[in-house]
Amino acid sequence: MKVTFSSTQSDKRDAVVVTSLSSAKLRNAAVALDTKTGGALTRAVRATGFKGNAGQNISISGPANEDAKHVVIAGLGKSAELDGKKLQANGKSLTAIFNQNGVKKVDVELDSVRGTKAADMAAEMALGATLESYSFDKYKTGAKKKDERVLNFVVDDPAAAEKAFEKLSATAKGVFLTKDLSNEPPNVLYPESFADRVVDEFKGSNVTVRVLDEAEMEKLGMGALLGVGQGSERPSRLVVMEYNGAPDTASDDEKRPVAFVGKGITFDTGGISLKSGGGRTMKYDMCGAAAVVGAMKTLSERGAGSNVVGVIALAENMPSGSAQRPDDVVTSMSGKTVEIVNTDAEGRLVLIDALTYVQQKHDPKVVVDLATLTGAIISALGSEHAGLFTNSDSLSDKLLEAGTKTDEKLWRMPVGGAYADGLKSNIADLMHMGGKAGSSSAASFLEKFIDDGREWAHLDIAGTAFSSEATGYGVRLLDQFVAENYETQKAKPKRTAQSSLKK
Ligand SMILES: [Zn+2]
Known about the structure:
With 503 residues, the protein is of the alpha/beta class. It has 15 helices and 18 strands. A hairpin with a 5-residue loop joins strand 12 and strand 13. The site of zinc ion (ZN) has 5 residues, from loops.
């Protein structure tokens, strides 16, 4: 789907979208079209009881005196409540118009609403439509036909709309990258090829990428991460992405980076503790890593005014003669020894070495890790919320807020205290699992590897990262989290993308 902005209507448009505020208050373009079509719009409003509520759309087919085969009235709701999130949802709903017979070209005629310029509205709606238009069809040999869909926004200042959309499209680029990485099959995307993709993606950009191979990780003592991948023919990798967007004028504390850490198990068989279900969908066990890469992409594309480091721990969990056993003891980079209980609880093992690495090498002011960590979080929260585990109330507030604003929602769960009691081992410093509350005990294990006084949060995204395909969960959340809390004032102006557009 192509998005365009213009000040005039397209020739030979198949459908036209006009807008209405609540109480079915038709906007100027809608009034003009109503007059042109001999009152087709007001008749449709009356006949359907259309109220113009946000997200409520009605369609009129074959209107008189109008070349477009379909007219859609899109409800924007109350002008005082109009924000980026609602407009994006609106844009997303517009893509359904292309499902109607023969619709290739759609005009969206927008009028400014009190406090919100038509150009900004168009940009937000264009982002929503773009995000919705994603598809992953590179392996469908018959699906290579050209996408001829054009969504054209008719506004008074198309140049301003174009500019605003370019800024917002950093979000779409990050989300698409995360989805692309997540959707790749595990015979194509494995630790080495994943690392190569990240290197290629950021080549020539403002993100520097460093890839650690197994020899380097061994030197650093990453026995926990390496143990997970030792049963696979595919060697493990640790990838470090650095983006330094804080201005020179920022204080030393402002320059300390925000760190994101992602679990990247490119395929999880469970290892010797083999999964019973056949392993389908276990290619998605790298969605945490994919979200971190996508967030780095978005931050760098929009030129975020802060320093951010992303670390992803990549391994394939396979059973073989060289695979890790339950009862093994490994030594992590922190120096702590860990007794292995079940080799299917591998995510926390790769994460602890990545967490230690980023704390030792980058001294971040805050660390947020993302992982499809436990099935238990799906039982608790389904796909509505990801689980949030943190040692900091203020960090919790920031993340919950970013989740609400981006609709990538979080729910805070308990960590530490008695939830860590099950992690005692008879022969090592720790066991890596134990206790009835699977998600909280996993988080409590991770917390054992966080330095005293370091702000840390763990997001268990096992229920939100994918359904039938990857959702891209986490990119917008992390971007919003940085934008709202960690950008230095003298940097580029704060974006209005996912918050309100109003000043
Ligand atoms: Zn597993």
